Amino acid sequence: MRSLRRIAVGVLSCASALGVAGCRGVQPMLAPGGPQAQSIARLGWFILITFSIVTVVMWVLIFWVAARRRGTLEEHAPYDAPADKRWIVFGGFFVPTVVLCTIFVLTLNTMRKFPMGDHEQHAGPPMITITGHQWWWEIEYHFGDTVSEHVVDANELHLPTGQPIDIRLQTRDVIHSFWVPRLHGKVDLVPGFENRIRVQVDQPGLYRGECGEYCGPQHAHMILLVDAQPPQAFQAWLAGARKPAAAPTDPVAAHGKDVFMTNACVLCHSIRGTDAHGLVGPDLTHVGSRKAIAANSYPNSRGYLEAWVTHAQSMKPDAQMPNVTAFTGDDLRALVTYLEGLK
Ligand code: CUA
Asked: Any residues with Cβ below 6 Å from ligand 1, and which?
């Protein structure tokens, strides 16, 4: 009996360790940052605990049967004793039906709290539009009365805390999926279709998300950072983001700007306040203030920026950013100085 208990404790410990390992890390599902994620976490805990209990009971029964085994199979046949049938009806049908139906009803109830789709309750226009690209996130903020107050940015989603934000999800190419586990469940970005979600963040801080739907070779390098700030700090950030890029005063950065404007960069990227109006790649108006580059795959530092400009295909193969090996020496240093200064 003691060895049976030891085995049960071992099984339970392993199951809990595995469960906890999947729920911690950089984007834990069971550490909600707002009401939407909270209802998912509640359901997650219920399922985790229920299945842990079912698993433990099942293993205890298996070991119990193994421990009390007597005689051979032939000696026990046929299995038609009423006690055997009760086990089968109760353990094989009744219990699973109750457990699965309960989870089904609770899941439907949780889903009811997430108004989605393009057909329904969202009467007003979205406050933010997120557009998926292979392999980065375009983010447009619609705050303000006029279009000139709208801001286009990339890969970092800034949100004010303590208020529901209506977000429109769409894609420019293939299916992607918005997934920031601490804030909301997965919602797909589908070609030719708009999805709407409502997100609220209660605690200021950084929340990491990833594209949750395989979308090509660089799917794993499509990371989204959510920066949640108190409303006043968010408004201050928005005011800064609305400003066009300041003209560089430093001669090196000014040379870098010339390099940017007279080469292929302008065909794909926009920098507000300049002649760069490309729409293929991320807007670079305030690229210097971003925490990371290449859809949050590499730190936003001088070394990585130089490497990205000249060897993007080694860092993120198949991305649309080409290797611009023509940039070397002073030109490359000046270009990166200019980009770093775009705060
Ligand atoms: Cu976008 Cu996976």
From this structure: 132, 135, 176, 211, 213-215, 219, 222
